[in-house]
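Exam revision sheet. Question 4 asks you to relate a sequence to its structure. Input first:
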Amino acid sequence: MNPLSRAETAFSSLQWLFFIFANTVVIPVSIGAAFELPSYEVAVILRTSLIFTGIACMLQGLCGHRYPLMEGHSGVMWGVVLNLCAAAPTLGMSLTSVGGGIATGMLLSAVVVLGLGAVRQLSVIRKIFTPMVMSVYLFLLTFQLILIFFKGMFTFSDDGSLVIPVSLFSILVVLLVALLKIKGNRLLSNFSILIGILAGWIGYVLLFPSERTAGPESEGAFFLLFPFGEPNLNAGIVFVTFIACMMNLSNAIASVQAAAQLFEEPSSEKRLNASYLLSGMYSIVGALFGLIPYAPYASSIGFLESTRILHLRPFLIGGALMSLLGIIPFLGDTLADMPITVGNAVLFTAYLQLFGTSLKSLHGTVFNSETIYRLAAPVLVGMSIMNMDPAAFSSLPVFLQPIVSNGFIAGVFLSVALEKCVRWDRYDEEKKAKSA
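Answer key, structure tokens:
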């Protein structure tokens, strides 16, 4: 790779900062709202999230997988926690009881991961998440994220109808970033995400000043201990959280393998194990301070493919700036005023690249009329569940509802089951025999 100039490094670092921030800010705010916390506590959790996300990114870049991959709150765990909060009334539980069970499940998963690391058995995780499972994972992750950001691009009125001017503006931001990426010169293409965010932010403020909403002000303490509830042994919640946290480790496999491909390097077991151990430690921090468990973002590959800036240094600087936002309240509050629709529009464009990463993960695999089920069944079942109302699964046992109603988790579970229970190579051999 050609070295970056100082100006390119500065703009690349700023671009990473916006990317990390846009992927982070919504999650602690939405989780705080789900647990019905007062705005002061939500502000503290947001501040903690900003500080620790920056630290987590730098640690992974320096001594974990050592790739420029954002380490952030897991989208899988975000969905699971929101589902558990929504189901609390039907389960006859208080939000505090649910929150305490989630904390216990996170701590238990951290102990298991660190224990496997201590006895050098982390490779067992990779045996479960085979290459085909990881392809399913990437496809479902792409669909889940695109759905989230597509819906987040638009503004809706109280009666549920689209606010046309703001929604059209979001589409224009998408077109701007796409055109800069496709038609712009190397410099404009590399910084298309940064340009899109800044231009969209300025345009939004000028055109829609009445639509602006301020986030919670992050003044006060840096941390709150167990803000969602003290750890407890609520078996159903602990079980669901533990399973989801263990599945969350597949983020590391998908991310590191995709990054190794992008950097044209062999996938390193040592880097993967280092990433596992850091993610296990982060789960402890998350349980203590009310943060969603962390994982390397496979979606960072889409960002890297969009910008084509693969250097590690801007990523590390971006992580340091992210922590600075949490330490200095004024900076965090200023960036929190960024219109969420603009952030979602830019991320929607960036994550379109993730679909290409999903296709590349198949490595030219050829399917026949039988083997296509190993990919199609889990992907299409997962997508179908994503588009169903979680309330439709309320008749199932309590501990199954958060798993079955989550299309991402259900799809990956189905893929693991198919890979372990079906000898797909036999179907390939039979097909070859018939052809012969």
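Marking note for examiners. The first strand starts at residue 71 and ends at 73.
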